[in-house]
Protein backbone atom coordinates (compact mmCIF):
# COMPACT_ATOMS: atom_id res chain seq x y z
CA UNK A 1 0.00 0.00 0.00
CA UNK A 2 1.39 3.40 -0.95
CA UNK A 3 1.99 6.01 1.71
CA UNK A 4 -0.92 8.22 0.54
CA UNK A 5 -3.28 5.26 0.53
CA UNK A 6 -2.33 4.39 4.13
CA UNK A 7 -3.25 7.87 5.34
CA UNK A 8 -6.68 7.54 3.73
CA UNK A 9 -7.34 4.13 5.33
CA UNK A 10 -9.52 4.71 8.44
CA UNK A 11 -8.19 1.63 10.26
CA UNK A 12 -4.60 2.73 9.71
CA UNK A 13 -5.55 6.21 10.91
CA UNK A 14 -7.26 4.80 14.04
CA UNK A 15 -4.23 2.63 14.88
CA UNK A 16 -1.81 5.46 14.27
CA UNK A 17 -3.67 8.05 16.32
CA UNK A 18 -4.36 5.64 19.19
CA UNK A 19 -0.73 4.54 19.39
CA UNK A 20 0.55 8.11 19.33
CA UNK A 21 -1.82 9.05 22.16
CA UNK A 22 -0.89 5.99 24.23
CA UNK A 23 2.81 6.70 23.71
CA UNK A 24 2.41 10.07 25.44
CA UNK A 25 0.50 8.88 28.52
CA UNK A 26 -1.98 6.30 29.75
CA UNK A 27 -5.57 6.78 28.62
CA UNK A 28 -8.80 5.07 29.56
CA UNK A 29 -10.70 3.35 26.79
CA UNK A 30 -13.41 6.02 27.05
CA UNK A 31 -10.89 8.87 26.65
CA UNK A 32 -9.23 7.22 23.69
CA UNK A 33 -12.57 6.52 21.99
CA UNK A 34 -13.61 10.13 22.53
CA UNK A 35 -10.38 11.45 21.00
CA UNK A 36 -10.75 9.14 18.02
CA UNK A 37 -14.37 10.21 17.58
CA UNK A 38 -13.25 13.87 17.61
CA UNK A 39 -10.94 13.02 14.72
CA UNK A 40 -14.01 11.77 12.84
CA UNK A 41 -12.98 8.13 12.89
CA UNK A 42 -16.15 5.99 13.04
CA UNK A 43 -16.68 3.74 16.09
CA UNK A 44 -17.09 0.64 13.93
CA UNK A 45 -13.49 1.24 12.76
CA UNK A 46 -11.79 2.09 16.06
CA UNK A 47 -13.63 -0.33 18.40
CA UNK A 48 -11.82 -3.41 17.01
CA UNK A 49 -8.52 -1.51 17.20
CA UNK A 50 -9.13 -0.65 20.87
CA UNK A 51 -10.17 -4.27 21.57
CA UNK A 52 -6.88 -5.43 20.05
CA UNK A 53 -4.88 -2.91 22.09
CA UNK A 54 -6.58 -4.12 25.26
CA UNK A 55 -5.68 -7.74 24.39
CA UNK A 56 -2.07 -6.66 23.77
CA UNK A 57 -2.00 -4.87 27.14
CA UNK A 58 -1.37 -1.46 25.62
CA UNK A 59 -4.71 -0.13 26.82
CA UNK A 60 -5.79 -0.96 30.36
CA UNK A 61 -8.41 0.94 32.37
CA UNK A 62 -7.19 -0.54 35.67
CA UNK A 63 -3.61 0.56 35.04
CA UNK A 64 -4.83 3.99 33.92
CA UNK A 65 -6.92 4.34 37.10
CA UNK A 66 -4.00 3.39 39.36
CA UNK A 67 -1.57 5.80 37.70
CA UNK A 68 -4.10 8.64 37.50
CA UNK A 69 -5.12 8.17 41.14
CA UNK A 70 -1.54 8.20 42.41
CA UNK A 71 -0.83 11.40 40.45
CA UNK A 72 -3.92 13.15 41.81
CA UNK A 73 -3.19 12.06 45.39
CA UNK A 74 0.33 13.47 45.09
CA UNK A 75 -1.12 16.70 43.64
CA UNK A 76 -3.12 17.18 46.86
CA UNK A 77 -6.62 16.14 45.80
CA UNK A 78 -9.08 14.28 47.98
CA UNK A 79 -10.90 11.00 47.36
CA UNK A 80 -14.22 12.50 46.27
CA UNK A 81 -12.67 14.58 43.50
CA UNK A 82 -10.45 11.75 42.32
CA UNK A 83 -13.42 9.36 42.06
CA UNK A 84 -15.45 11.98 40.18
CA UNK A 85 -12.60 12.60 37.73
CA UNK A 86 -12.19 8.88 37.13
CA UNK A 87 -15.90 8.56 36.40
CA UNK A 88 -15.62 11.42 33.89
CA UNK A 89 -12.88 9.42 32.20
CA UNK A 90 -15.01 6.29 31.97
CA UNK A 91 -13.58 4.39 34.94
CA UNK A 92 -16.32 3.31 37.33
CA UNK A 93 -14.43 1.12 39.80
CA UNK A 94 -12.40 2.35 42.76
CA UNK A 95 -8.67 1.68 42.25
CA UNK A 96 -6.89 -0.31 44.95
CA UNK A 97 -4.45 2.51 45.70
CA UNK A 98 -7.38 4.82 46.52
CA UNK A 99 -9.26 2.40 48.75
CA UNK A 100 -6.05 1.46 50.59
CA UNK A 101 -5.53 5.01 51.91
CA UNK A 102 -6.79 5.23 55.49
CA UNK A 103 -9.12 7.97 56.70
CA UNK A 104 -6.38 9.35 58.99
CA UNK A 105 -4.10 9.76 55.96
CA UNK A 106 -6.83 11.68 54.09
CA UNK A 107 -7.19 13.94 57.13
CA UNK A 108 -3.41 14.57 57.15
CA UNK A 109 -3.53 15.36 53.43
CA UNK A 110 -6.41 17.79 53.99
CA UNK A 111 -4.38 19.53 56.71
CA UNK A 112 -1.40 19.68 54.33
CA UNK A 113 -3.55 21.18 51.56
CA UNK A 114 -4.96 23.80 53.93
CA UNK A 115 -1.52 24.61 55.33
CA UNK A 116 -0.05 25.00 51.85
CA UNK A 117 -2.81 27.35 50.72
CA UNK A 118 -3.76 29.30 53.86
CA UNK A 119 -1.46 28.33 56.72
CA UNK A 120 -2.78 26.80 59.93
CA UNK A 121 -3.98 29.90 61.77
CA UNK A 122 -7.02 29.45 64.01
CA UNK A 123 -10.23 30.15 62.06
CA UNK A 124 -12.76 29.08 64.70
CA UNK A 125 -13.74 32.68 65.50
CA UNK A 126 -13.73 33.90 61.88
CA UNK A 127 -16.74 32.34 60.14
CA UNK A 128 -16.21 33.90 56.67
CA UNK A 129 -12.59 32.69 56.57
CA UNK A 130 -13.56 29.25 57.88
CA UNK A 131 -16.20 28.94 55.16
CA UNK A 132 -13.75 30.08 52.50
CA UNK A 133 -11.23 27.45 53.54
CA UNK A 134 -13.96 24.79 53.81
CA UNK A 135 -15.07 25.55 50.23
CA UNK A 136 -11.47 25.20 49.07
CA UNK A 137 -11.15 21.80 50.72
CA UNK A 138 -14.50 20.69 49.28
CA UNK A 139 -13.39 21.70 45.77
CA UNK A 140 -10.22 19.70 46.32
CA UNK A 141 -12.38 16.65 47.00
CA UNK A 142 -12.12 16.19 50.74
CA UNK A 143 -15.16 14.99 52.68
CA UNK A 144 -16.82 17.19 55.29
CA UNK A 145 -15.25 15.21 58.15
CA UNK A 146 -11.80 15.49 56.57
CA UNK A 147 -12.32 19.23 56.03
CA UNK A 148 -13.53 19.72 59.60
CA UNK A 149 -10.45 17.93 60.89
CA UNK A 150 -8.22 20.17 58.75
CA UNK A 151 -10.03 23.33 59.88
CA UNK A 152 -9.58 22.43 63.54
CA UNK A 153 -5.87 21.69 63.10
CA UNK A 154 -3.42 24.21 64.47
CA UNK A 155 0.26 24.88 63.84
CA UNK A 156 1.26 22.70 66.82
CA UNK A 157 -0.72 19.64 65.67
CA UNK A 158 1.09 16.75 63.98
Topology:
Blueprint: H1 3-8, H2 10-24, H3 29-38, H4 43-56, H5 61-74, H6 79-88, H7 96-99, H8 103-118, H9 127-140, H10 144-152
Helix pairs in contact: 2-4, 3-4, 5-6, 8-10, 9-10
Overview of the molecule:
The protein is an all-alpha fold and 158 residues long. The chain contains ten helices and no strands. The protein has helices at residues 3-8, 10-24, 29-38, 43-56, 61-74, 79-88, 96-99, 103-118, 127-140, 144-152. Helix 3 packs antiparallel against helix 4 (43-56). The model has no long low-confidence stretch (mean pLDDT 92).
Overview features:
elongated, 10 helices, 158 residues, mainly alpha, 0% strand
Summed up, what is this model?
Helix content is 71%, strand content 0%.
Overall outline: elongated
Coarse structural class: mainly alpha
SSE order, one letter for each helix or strand: HHHHHHHHHH
| β-sheet strand percentage | under 5%
Quantity of strands, as a count: 0
Amino acid sequence: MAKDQKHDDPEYQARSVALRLLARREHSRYELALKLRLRRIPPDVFDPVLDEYECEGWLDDDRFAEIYTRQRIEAGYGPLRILAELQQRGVNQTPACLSSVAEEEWCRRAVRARDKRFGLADVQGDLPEKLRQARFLARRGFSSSQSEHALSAGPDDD
